[in-house]
């Protein structure tokens, strides 16, 4: 577990170690099957997999990037960006959301397991069944890592979490637990998921009222509170930017007074949350059909 957080070279060596990832996944599967999701060894295994999924998209060996991004390369003949992971235009990124991954292998091995739907379902199971904060946080964090990029892999993982594995109810439950770092990681994961336009309505229907309910009345307190509030605002921004219906949902959940209060907080410590709330307000005002409701 310590070694897995030793940086890019350490992660690379551990990903390449024959049988290591498979053994970790095998152990966790056994623990879940035996109804023992709270033991320390399971926590260690999940924390290792969490660390090994960090920066995965950018650190994958070329043999994987070639197959994963093969379909993507024909999106635009005008895309001059070198390599697979450079900065791309918004247009290209949007098209990538519709670029499917190659068909999943039924028996993944090694590094392939890290983004496979089997492990995604294991993380969601641990989020639902474990009561250990570190295990929950590592499971959420691994999914956050896997959905952090802009290529087809993160969007495929996001679709698995939201639509194929029905993971939103488990994540929604986590939003209401008291441990602040677990809640912060859950919100960061939702922020990543909400960038996928094809999933925004599903996410809004399932968790938008919950996000509003955990949004603080003000951001006085710790840095974690401020960062969580900022992430919530950016998630709500993603969910409402292109949907007047979702903006109305936010309004009916009594989110507007909270967002206004956060936007007016001028403390330097909480400027990130204030800025995020201001961006959200500006976006909400773009729905002209809701102006009268806003004023009321």
UniProtKB/TrEMBL annotation:
Region (Disordered): 79-109
Biased composition (Basic and acidic residues): 94-107
Sorted UniProt keywords: Cell adhesion, Cell junction, Repeat
Annotated Gene Ontology cellular component terms: adherens junction; cytoplasm; intercalated disc; nucleus; plasma membrane
GO biological process: cell-cell adhesion; desmosome organization; heart development; intermediate filament bundle assembly; protein localization to plasma membrane
Location relative to the cell: Cell junction
InterPro entries recorded: ARM-like, ARM-type_fold, Armadillo, Plakophilin/d_Catenin
Family the entry assigns: Belongs to the beta-catenin family.
Protein name: PKP2 protein
Organism: Corythaixoides concolor
Organism ancestry: Eukaryota, Metazoa, Chordata, Craniata, Vertebrata
């Amino acid at each position: 577990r310590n070694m897995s957080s030793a940086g890019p070279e350490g992660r690379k060596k551990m990903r390449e170690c024959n049988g290591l990832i498979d053994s970790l996944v095998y152990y966790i599967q056994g623990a879940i099957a035996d109804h023992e999701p709270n033991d320390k060894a399971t926590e260690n295994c999940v924390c290792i997999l969490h660390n090994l999924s960090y920066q995965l998209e950018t650190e994958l060996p070329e043999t994987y990037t070639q197959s994963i991004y093969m379909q993507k390369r024909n999106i635009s003949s005008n895309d001059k960006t070198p390599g697979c992971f450079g900065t791309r235009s918004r247009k290209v990124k949007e098209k990538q959301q519709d670029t499917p991954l190659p068909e999943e292998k039924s028996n993944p091995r090694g590094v392939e397991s890290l983004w496979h739907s089997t492990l995604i379902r294991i993380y969601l199971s641990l989020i639902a069944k474990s009561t250990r904060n570190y295990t929950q946080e590592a499971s959420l964090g691994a999914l956050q890592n896997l959905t952090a990029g802009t290529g087809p892999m993160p969007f495929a993982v996001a679709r698995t979490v939201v639509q194929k594995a029905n993971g939103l109810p488990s994540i929604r439950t986590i939003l209401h637990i008291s441990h602040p770092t677990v809640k912060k990681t859950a919100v960061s994961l939702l922020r990543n998921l909400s960038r996928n336009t094809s999933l925004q309505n599903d996410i809004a229907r399932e968790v938008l009222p919950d996000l509003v309910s955990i949004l603080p009345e003000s951001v006085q307190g710790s840095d974690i509170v401020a960062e969580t509030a900022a992430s919530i605002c950016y998630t709500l921004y993603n969910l409402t930017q292109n949907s007047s219906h979702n903006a109305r949902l936010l309004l009916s959940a009594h989110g507007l007074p909270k967002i206004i209060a956060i936007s007016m907080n001028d403390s330097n410590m909480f400027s990130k949350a204030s800025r995020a709330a201001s961006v959200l307000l500006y976006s909400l005002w773009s729905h002209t059909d809701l102006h009268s409701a806003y004023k009321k």
